[in-house]
Input
Amino acid sequence: MKLVEWVGLALSISTLMGTFVLMVKWLVKHYLSELKPNGGASMVDKVNRLESRVDEIYRLLVEK
Output
């Protein structure tokens, strides 16, 4: 292979790797945003509400 072909190969590989890194970065940012409380719409808010309801059910069961 000639030098131009090696440069083209290296450029295409680096472009693909950069695209992959950016996609993974976006996915991580998107999924981590679900784990931060934001006033009721995130997954962590829903889990917290369910946990408080389960605690209330346990409290009611223990009282009886």
Q: What stands out?
A: The mean pLDDT is 91. The chain has two domains: 1-32, 34-64. The helical segments are 3-33, 43-63. The radius of gyration is 25 Å.
